[in-house]
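Worked Example 4.2. Consider the chain below.
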Amino acid sequence: MGRQHGGRSVTLWSVKPRYIAIEGPIGVGKTTFAKALAGRIGADLLLEAVEENPFLPGFYRDPKHFAFQTQLFFLLSRYRQQEQLPQQTLFARGGLVSDYLFAKDRIFAHLTLNEDELALYEKVFQALDCKIVKPDLVVYLQADLDTLFQRIRKRGREYERNIQENYLVELSKSYNQFFFHYTETPLLVVNTNQIDTREPEALNELAREIMTMRGGTKYYLPQPR
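Applying the procedure from the previous section yields the following structure tokens:
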């Protein structure tokens, strides 16, 4: 059932979400939270195979040269994962938690590809996106730039050492713009600057917010611990 809220079309439903996608910019803690949430609610876990992209290290060194190869590899890899989602995973046990949303692939494409590359990319994306199962709920994790850089440095991935500050700035802006206009599914926006989503009390509160979402868009600011 749809309803207008603040000029935006939102989706309303009366049961708890079974398929939850976690999103946010590089370094915000998507995978960490997805793992913790799946364990907390007894759901299966779907993780994006980021480190399997052979073009990613080259992209962070020379974005212009490696952008198209990197983006196309991610798009096809994400599609293969989504295509293989068995229905019993979505509707049995505790459902499914994923650390990415398929539609977010376009955020990176529009940020990194030139006009000709983007035109070809869009044709491929449109052919694949219509075949993808949409999640019941998207959880968008936000953090300011200082927090993102701190978390990136802390996890110490070799290929992320070459991430340029202006790229992360533009990526964060693009994420905010994308989800400001996002209406495909219910959306929970969570500010994570002051919390550790692995900490039991914070995790319990977030899980409660997620499992009681009944549609629309909600902004949640956890109390710092």
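The longest strand covers residues 137-142. Confidence is low (pLDDT under 50) at residues 1-14. Compare this with Example 4.1 before moving on.
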